[in-house]
Write a structure and sequence with these properties.
Length: about 375
């Protein structure tokens, strides 16, 4: 039994055990690099407390020589690098899908199942090179010790990424987050960080890495984190059905104002994040407060690295009354977010990247100057 992680008191806790929680919009909006006590937590099983001194990472499969590393060996043998990257759960914004059609047994994540940190560790590519990675390996699989009761059959968490992605310079075996040693809740002593891919591929508490010629057969690669057609009979799905989720789709959220806020009518500061995975970047965000009759182009902040979200902000004229504020983002391939949750609804509730909306009550100011 692990203790709850040290998080801000205002976290929205979907489940205490295993710990699943997201920060409220306002807390996420405060920093482009999310403080650890604000960073969302997503767990499929009880978080393990691992003795860093006894921990070993075993690397094997399609390699010239299987090797085992202690934490000290990882830290001294490989040049440490820092990558600022956003993690985004595939279930982020699921509540918007559930509002269209319910998704029983899944957490109703809001805007906050995503956060950004500075990660420091060894390049996975360097570790694989040291082991003599076989060029015929197509997939790199990760295994952790935490057992997920929801898996069918119950099994430890795991998953895989392509060998191409695994050998890209941004993919890390990280032991530090925001300049501090990783906390137990975020995967200590070492986790995988796969920038630009769904959070599930950034396996925490990693203890085995396997080079192979097929994707991981772990439940979270073959049974979950797959996009199924809306009309799928989920009682009859089989491992491998649907599409495995990897690179993060273009998405955005409004963080300021919060849903349900009361504010004076008139020019209003609206802010949020937008994110596009892998080699895509966010190039434009529009905001409307009049049902799409007029759109204001938001100012885009600089991205700390290509692997992070982009904060944006706009001044939008909000009329008096109950008002929906809606945003939409474009990426560098000129793709735009889909308008309706209904378009993207899927049985497990992944990748809701439809236009984000908050509803506010704007009171007339009476100021006509
Ligand atoms: N071992 C292990 N790694 C894991 C998970 C898990 O349950 N067990 N959850 C994954 C999912 S679904 C996400 S979104 C991220 C969340 O990382 P965080 O808890 O550090 O925010 O971790 C991923 N890595
Ligand atoms: Mo996730």
């Amino acid at each position: 039994m692990t203790s709850a992680p040290a998080k801000r008191a205002d976290m929205i806790v979907h489940e205490q055990e295993p710990y699943n929680a997201e920060p409220p919009r306002a807390a996420l909006a405060e920093h482009v690099i999310t403080p650890v006590e604000v960073f969302y937590g997503r767990n499929h099983g009880t978080m393990p407390e691992i003795d860093a001194g006894a921990w070993r990472l075993r690397v094997g499969g399609m390699v010239g020589h299987a090797l085992e590393f202690s934490l000290a060996e990882l830290q001294h043998r490989f040049a440490p690098v820092e990558v600022t990257a956003t993690l985004q759960c595939a279930g982020n914004r699921r509540a918007g899908l559930m509002a269209f059609r319910d998704i029983p047994g899944q957490h109703p994540w809001g805007a906050g199942a995503t956060s950004t940190a500075r990660w420091r560790g060894a390049r996975l590519a360097d570790v694989l090179t040291a082991c003599g990675l076989d060029p015929h390996a197509t997939d790199i699989a990760f295994d952790a010790p935490d057992v997920a009761p929801e898996a069918d059959p119950p099994q430890p968490f795991g998953g895989s990424i392509s060998a191409d992605k695994a050998t890209a310079p941004e993919v890390l075996l990280a032991w530090e987050m925001n300049g501090e040693p990783l906390t137990a809740a975020h995967g200590a002593p070492v986790r995988v960080i796969v920038p630009g891919h769904i959070g599930a591929r950034s396996v925490k508490w990693v203890q085995r890495i396997t080079a192979q010629d097929h994707p991981s057969d772990n439940f979270f690669q073959q049974g979950a984190y797959r996009l199924l057609p809306a009309d799928t009979d989920t009682a009859r799905t089989r491992p491998g059905d649907g599409v495995a989720l990897g690179a993060v789709a273009l998405n955005s959220e409004i963080l300021v104002p919060d849903d349900g806020d009361e504010l004076p009518a008139g020019p209003t500061h609206v802010a949020g994040y937008a994110f596009a995975g892998d080699d895509r970047t966010v190039v434009r965000v529009d905001v409307t407060a009049d049902g799409g009759a007029t759109w204001v182009q938001a100012d885009l902040d600089a991205q700390p690295t290509p692997w992070t979200w982009r904060f944006w902000h706009a001044r939008v004229d909000v009329p008096a009354g109950g008002v929906e504020i809606t945003a939409r983002a474009w990426d560098s391939t000129a793709a735009v977010q889909p308008e309706h949750a209904a378009t993207v609804w899927n049985p497990k509730g992944y990748v809701n990247n439809s236009w984000p909306t908050v509803t506010v009550t704007a009171t007339p100011t009476g100021d006509v100057s």
